[in-house]
């Protein structure tokens, strides 16, 4: 069961109460869970800026790409050994390809 909590005051949101609002500012995307009254406050606060602003096309909005966790040095040798045992092409030194990393993570 997934339950929302107002991110401003911690109020537990029951089914049908509150909402998740998504917005972006300076190229960063955000979302916040709010009670109906906090959602209305946010909309009222932003209203003058929205009226004065102009809509950006979807092409102008960049979603933040999920960051991948960098492999630790001890993990790198383990990944190389695993890749070799699977018949995957992996160099002895240097960067491990994203495809090999994805395959390793999917298998573990």
UniProtKB/TrEMBL annotation:
<keyword id="KW-0238">DNA-binding</keyword>
<feature type="domain" description="Lsr2 dimerization">
    <location>
        <begin position="3"/>
        <end position="56"/>
    </location>
</feature>
<protein>
    <submittedName>
        <fullName>Lsr2 family protein</fullName>
    </submittedName>
</protein>
<dbReference type="InterPro" id="IPR024412">
    <property type="entry name" value="Lsr2_dim_dom"/>
</dbReference>
<dbReference type="Pfam" id="PF11774">
    <property type="entry name" value="Lsr2"/>
</dbReference>
<dbReference type="InterPro" id="IPR042261">
    <property type="entry name" value="Lsr2-like_dimerization"/>
</dbReference>
<dbReference type="InterPro" id="IPR036625">
    <property type="entry name" value="E3-bd_dom_sf"/>
</dbReference>
<dbReference type="InterPro" id="IPR055370">
    <property type="entry name" value="Lsr2_DNA-bd"/>
</dbReference>
<feature type="domain" description="Lsr2 DNA-binding">
    <location>
        <begin position="76"/>
        <end position="107"/>
    </location>
</feature>
<dbReference type="Pfam" id="PF23359">
    <property type="entry name" value="Lsr2_DNA-bd"/>
</dbReference>
């Amino acid at each position: 069961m997934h339950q929302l909590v107002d991110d401003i005051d911690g109020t537990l949101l029951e089914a049908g109460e509150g909402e998740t609002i998504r917005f972006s500012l300076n190229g960063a995307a955000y979302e916040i869970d709010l009670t109906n009254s906090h959602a209305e406050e946010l909309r009222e606060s932003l209203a003058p800026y929205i009226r004065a602003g102009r809509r950006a096309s979807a092409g102008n909005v960049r979603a933040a790409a999920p960051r991948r966790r960098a492999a630790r040095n001890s993990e790198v040798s383990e990944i190389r050994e695993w890749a070799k045992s699977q018949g995957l092409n992996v160099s002895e030194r240097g960067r491990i390809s994203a495809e090999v990393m994805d395959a390793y993570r999917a298998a573990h």
